[in-house]
Amino acid sequence: MNTIALGVAATFTAEPLGDALRFWLAELGVEGDVAFAPYDQVFPSLLDPGSVLGRAGAAVVLVRAEDLVNGDGARDPGALDAAADDLAAALRTSSGAAGTPHLVAVCPASPGHGSPAGHARLAARLAQAFEGDPAVSVLTSAEPYEPDPEAVHDAFADRTGNVPYTDRYFAALAGALARRLHATTTPRPKVVVADCDGTLWDGVVGEDGPDGVVIGSERRQIWQELARQVAAGRLLCLCSKNEEKDVREVFARHPELPFGLDDVAAMRVGWEAKSQALRSLAAELNLGLDSFVFLDDSPVECAEVRAGCPEVLTLRLPADAAGAAAFLRHCWPLDVTAVTETDRERTRHYQEERRREQARGEMSLADFFATLDLRVTIAPAGPEHEARAAQLAERTNQFNLSGTRRLDGDEQFVVDVRDRFGDYGVVGLTDVRVDGDTLRAGAFLLSCRALGRGVEHRMLAHLGALARERGLARVALSFRATDRNQPARDFLATLPAAVEPYDEEAVWYVLDAGDAAAVVHSAVHSAVYSAGPAGERAARPARTTELAAPAAWEAVERIATRLTGAEAIMDAMRAARPVTEVAGASPVEATVMRWWAELLDLAPTSVNDGFFELGGHSLRLVQFMARVRAEFGVELPFDTLYTTSFTVAEVAKVIEERQLADTDDEELAGLLDELAGLSDEEIDALLDSGNG
């Protein structure tokens, strides 16, 4: 996510969100800007391809239940469901036409007018409508940044300019939206590697012994976070400088912990450099180092891994257990937007692969394939495959012929594989359309864990048979070379295919339909293009550091340690817009200058600078007035605001005068109340003492 333009449409005035979203773009090193649709134009913006949403790289839609239905409709389940269904249909139309991520946030109901029950119903209905849908993501709150309930709504700004929320809530909402967008547009890591001493437990097992290390309640939270990663389909590995028997003994003595060694895909416990251990793990798992996250509390070990494996996202955990657990909760790369059944079974798949590796080493390659009992099922993709198909397109690199991430063919076929060692699940996908006498496959991809077993040959034979059934003469496979899909290129080189131009980057590999249907696998093919984990290690070692870009660990650590709540986000936004200190400025003038620096295009440098000269407009004016009311307890008169004398000094003077007037009024009212409670004799006594 290096360049992106955000389009925002809302059922209320949402422009204050723009500053916070721009802050997050800058924080993530992303070039782009934020554009807003006209007020309350959600449906037209979704349905018009030329709108702000249609032109954006990502669309953000903000709604309240009370805005989608009129009057008491927010309390009518039928009206709410109909509105939710209409909105869902519009979101599907927009996301399908634009092919860009769409985020929809159901925002809190206003006190007194909205209905919390209506909010909950709308949120649940939309979340259900897009469950497992990679194109539309639903946020039902601003968690984990949402402020306390009393800091969410701004009744004054809502009444004055239809801005229903505080700056603090907009900052929280922007954080939640940016985090979800990051999760939907940035490749997710596949492997989490954790240190042991100082990470999984307090103490050093080699010195304190298995009984001497401590796993308290706060350390247990770290285990829970890692168990959540396993449940989401990440492979969990251990990498520790210790004796393996000691580490295993700790696990044996704590069977009650959230995960055990059966949940660990692989481990490297010994005395080699951790960068070498990670390269060894990458080779064993047949995964690129750029899909690894390494967690360690030691700055020395983190520095060594960053130098030796810059492809790995290496993160230094805080030394204290509570800080480390909080770090993991706010570690954006570990977020998961959707979990498929294949994800849940991923560790088991890799453990079965290890048994296959062992069997392969005990017999010849030909004998191994002869006894594998491979069963391949190829079937049309149904709704139940939608999430897994999108996931395969997004994650598959090595055997992805065209390198595509989008599926736009007329038909899709999913490939399910199993053998005598276990069930691989859905590991392959083809996306085809008919073009004249040719069946063209825009996507032809297979998970690396099923490579080298002949599955790819059966996929091609299936397309050949399908073409012949439909009276088509040819099968064409789209191919575009990437820096990751050499196995796909090697596979194509074994086929009796002609190469025809496609576009500037891609070509078609074209086969006679009969030749495609007759393609079969042999052990020779596996040796030719180095498929499978063993072949991958033998033919193509892990990518060298010269080819890898360093992982952006600084930004991840900064976000996970410093930007963990709405107030922290607002502090960082203020720090990014410094204000010039003016000697002699009063405290009220200094506060006004700081607010204007945050709100306006240009920061004031003098108490004589004017609001509108610095880029102020009516919406910024509402925001400023709301801050004055919240901080100083006064409302500014309009005859002061809409004048050329609306300067820092003048508005500060008005604030001070109105504070003083309010104070005098309160003192007078208090004195009158006190006098009302006195008897005539007491009043006469007070007068006499005053005259004396």
TrEMBL record:
<dbReference type="InterPro" id="IPR010033">
    <property type="entry name" value="HAD_SF_ppase_IIIC"/>
</dbReference>
<dbReference type="InterPro" id="IPR016181">
    <property type="entry name" value="Acyl_CoA_acyltransferase"/>
</dbReference>
<dbReference type="InterPro" id="IPR023214">
    <property type="entry name" value="HAD_sf"/>
</dbReference>
<dbReference type="InterPro" id="IPR010037">
    <property type="entry name" value="FkbH_domain"/>
</dbReference>
<dbReference type="InterPro" id="IPR036736">
    <property type="entry name" value="ACP-like_sf"/>
</dbReference>
<dbReference type="InterPro" id="IPR036412">
    <property type="entry name" value="HAD-like_sf"/>
</dbReference>
<dbReference type="Pfam" id="PF00550">
    <property type="entry name" value="PP-binding"/>
</dbReference>
<dbReference type="InterPro" id="IPR036514">
    <property type="entry name" value="SGNH_hydro_sf"/>
</dbReference>
<dbReference type="InterPro" id="IPR009081">
    <property type="entry name" value="PP-bd_ACP"/>
</dbReference>
<feature type="domain" description="Carrier">
    <location>
        <begin position="583"/>
        <end position="659"/>
    </location>
</feature>
<protein>
    <recommendedName>
        <fullName>Carrier domain-containing protein</fullName>
    </recommendedName>
</protein>
